[in-house]
Amino acid sequence: MIKVDDKLKLFAKLVLEKVQNESEKKVNDFKRNQDTVLESEKQRLLKESENLIKKTRKKAENKKRQIVSKAVMDRQRALLKKRKEVYDRMVKGIRDMTSEFVDEPEYLGFLEKNIALGFSKFDAKNAVMLVTPHDMEKYYDSIKSYIDKYKKNDMNVEIKEANDSMLGGCIIEDADKTMRVDCSMEMVLEDNRVNIGKTLMDNV
């Protein structure tokens, strides 16, 4: 016959085993939950890290493109500035040579050619021919003979001095200034502006 003490011991043992089993289950559940939470947090941090790396890489690429683009633009601006400087020097050199050319014997050939060209394009009864003060003083007789040689028979031509900015050649206008044929040296330079620019593009 089982004594009361034995019953109590047995009861206590059963209670203790139950408590231990429940405790172990709770501990195991807690560990599993914690592992799940840790793994989830690990994946979240890994994803954030990858996104951060992508953003940083993209930002660095954008910065790199901006730096390269700015360097290209700076180089183009510097090149254009240099071409402009060289172009200005070339034009000044040509203008200086032109001012000397008007005193060379070959200039009269140039002047005759441009007077002939001007009259070939001009069609009015009354004309005014503009020449430089220098040419008016030095080549008036030659200019008059070229006019008589190349103008139309019924055309009246008056010779006048142009302003001091004109380098050479001639400009022919009608009396009302509604028709104008520019055969000046400035126009020759202007017509060759493209060639000068192309020369610069090829060499600078």
State the separation between the terminal residues, measured CA to CA.
Answer: 121 Å
Kindly state the percentage of residues in helix. Answer: over 70%
Give a short account of the largest sheet. 4 strands, mixed
Order of helices and strands: HHEHEEEHH
Determine the strand fraction and express it as a percent band.
5-15%
Summarize the topology:
Blueprint: H1 4-101, H2 106-121, E1 126-131, H3 133-150, E2 156-161, E3 169-174, E4 180-184, H4 185-191, H5 193-203
Parallel strand pairs: 1-2
Antiparallel strand pairs: 1-3, 3-4
What does this structure look like?
With 204 residues, the protein is α+β, with helices and mostly antiparallel strands. It is built from five helices and four strands; from the N terminus they run ααβαβββαα. The protein has a four-stranded mixed beta sheet. The protein starts with a helix and ends with a helix.
Quick description:
The protein is α+β, with helices and mostly antiparallel strands. The chain has 5 helices and 4 strands; from the N terminus they run ααβαβββαα. The mean pLDDT is 89.
Defining traits:
204 residues, alpha+beta, four-stranded mixed sheet, 11% strand
